[in-house]
Amino acid sequence: MDYLLEIGVEEIPARFIPGIIEEVKNKGEEFLKEFGVQYEAVISEATPRRIVFYVKGVLPKTEEKIQEVKGPAKKASYDSEGNPTRALLGFARSQGIEPNEVIEKEVNGVIYVFARKKTGGNPVDELLPEIARKLIKSLSFPKPMRWGDIDFKFIRPIRWLVSLLDEKVIPLEIAGIKADRISRGHRFLGQKEVVLDRAADYFVAMRENYVIVSLNERIEMIRAQLHRASAEEGVVVDQDEELLLENANLVEYPTVVIGEINREFLELPKEVIITPMKEHQRYFPLFKNDGSLYHKFLAVRNGGRENLAEIAEGYAKVLRARLYDARFFYREDLKKPLSAYNEKLTRIVFQEKLGTVWDKVLRLKELVVAIGRELNCDDEVKSYAARAAELSKADLATNMVYEFPELQGIMGRDYALKSGERKEVADAIFEHYLPRFSGDIVATSEVGILLSCAEKIDNLTAFFALKQIPTGSADPFGLRRQALGLLRTLIENKRFFSLKKAFDAAFNLLPAEVREKANFAEVYEELLEFIYQRFKGLLLEEGFSYDTIDAVLATGKDDFYDLYLRVRALENLRNHPSFTALTTTFTRAYNLARKGQGREVAESLLYEPAEKELFARFSEISLNVKEFLREKAYLKAMEEVAALANPLDRFFNEVLVMAEDEKIRENRLGLLGAIARLVLEIADLSKIVG
């Protein structure tokens, strides 16, 4: 048997649909298990007008189980004449059986009476009304609605219910709506009432009425049509996956339409056209092979292929109105140079305690110079970065960015170039916001890297000093994204850079009242731990072992490209034949060394051949290791260290470290301490699990 529960509603916002599908499946399976319902599979789906819970292969009865309940001991259950005692009578009554129906079992040498009860075997059709009711009432939504005078909330008002177990209507009433076998087709193309003879007819009947119930199928339909339409035009479609998902959640029967962009608008920067196209109209841009914007777009309609020309013209007309506005804003903005907009920044508050956006700009101007010194940038790069910092937020005061905030940085670059600024400055204005989202590119130009790092370091330092630290899922200032962006910028551009000095410089540029209420040492400690967590997450996503990462982070360093190279080297070393032996012996050496007083090793106090060999090998290797460390050649340094595995093993097998003679004991502990300190320059191998 198959069971269908369809909840017909008014239009659900597209962004909620994927979460609804997941929650219906998870909670539906949970309630089926709770009631003991046996089935083959659960299908959960949703469109803008319906939520679907479909259970395939439902067995007529719930699973039967034999349950044994332990009662009193046998000797307490019968009197001397073998008659049931009050204890047995009470137990039997509580279990709903007769005293003579108990069985006896031995437990730990004592015989007890047990009640054997059969549970389950209940008709499923009697349980489904309660399961469906619990499922509907358990669903949670970000913005539930109440309608009419009923005391019930849901994502949108419920308009119909279908509840079918094969051919049988399962009784159900929610919010005054009684379930039956009548669904509804597409709002405009399908039948107003679709009578379902049986649950198994549902998906075919919906398709015949222009409703594609499956979200994944709607996605693939749109994807295929986008490719076909763009191929026919000989161009490339910008197949944004988020935009694709949103469109699939806006329609029940998707059909791709091709529309025209008035060529007069193509003189605008392509981002000015693409942003309203995607963000406001949900259209897909098309591009020529050279990357320039094509004069047509693709859109998704909720319906079939009838009247496509008229619909395409309607879509184009709406976009045209948007682009008229965009062109007006663009032309107005270009009437003054970009720098002229800085004056407005003095009246825009960045954060109550951090001052205006212009105050932030002034901090960035000084911070890029300080960070530039740490990154060994030449004077020209620092000069360009200071100019880019001065103009970095000017576009926030323009008409275009006010109307389309998504264009911040993009318009700054365009306006800077048209104001006669150098390309290096203009590119940095755009790049300092990068990466803007997961998977986005990072800054790559010298000036852009410098300004991008300064932007993120200023934000992180300022909000941590204010104790505005992300907690749980709350991150109102996007500090997790800022930290990840900083890490990616440094690592992907291979920049060696100790963050402490940069954070110190950023802290000293904050308003005096903020600095006075914060302690830099505490702020830095919290910042470093926060960035460590983002760094670990980044490396785990790349496939590095968690204990490799922990071993490297235990060094306490804050040059994250340097740390990245160490992690990569240590992960490679794990394939070395001596690695396991090295980690074992190092851990032993490290633990023993902590018992010593850290004295220098006196060669004259080395008596045993094994300790002499270890000292000689260590003396030779340590020079090589230190040279490799200076060259950042961490794999070579670790391979050198791995050569100590055998001498260390022999040392522990043949030498009594904790000798009675204090001088000899301390000398041996000093040797182990020197080895431990050398290895700890690279990583703490005691953190390696296996």
From TrEMBL:
Q: Which HAMAP family match?
A: Gly_tRNA_synth_beta
Instruction: Supply one GO molecular-function term.
Output: glycine-tRNA ligase activity
The annotated subunit structure for this chain is:
Tetramer of two alpha and two beta subunits.
Subcellular location, in the record's words?
Answer: Cytoplasm
Catalytic reaction annotation: tRNA(Gly) + glycine + ATP = glycyl-tRNA(Gly) + AMP + diphosphate
State whether keyword Calcium applies.
no
Q: What PROSITE patterns does the record point to? A: AA_TRNA_LIGASE_II_GLYAB
Main location class: cytoplasm
Q: Which organism is it from?
A: Carboxydothermus ferrireducens DSM 11255
Q: What is this protein called?
A: Glycine--tRNA ligase beta subunit
The family database entries (Pfam families) matched by this protein are listed as: DALR_1, tRNA_synt_2f
The record's similarity note reads: Belongs to the class-II aminoacyl-tRNA synthetase family.
Q: What is its EC number?
A: 6.1.1.14
Name of the gene this protein is made from: glyS
Note whether Ligase occurs among the keywords: yes
Give UniProt keywords alphabetically.
Aminoacyl-tRNA synthetase, ATP-binding, Cytoplasm, Ligase, Nucleotide-binding, Protein biosynthesis
Domain DALR anticodon binding stretches? 585-679
What PANTHER family does this protein's entry cite? Answer: GLYCINE--TRNA LIGASE, CHLOROPLASTIC_MITOCHONDRIAL 2, GLYCYL-TRNA SYNTHETASE
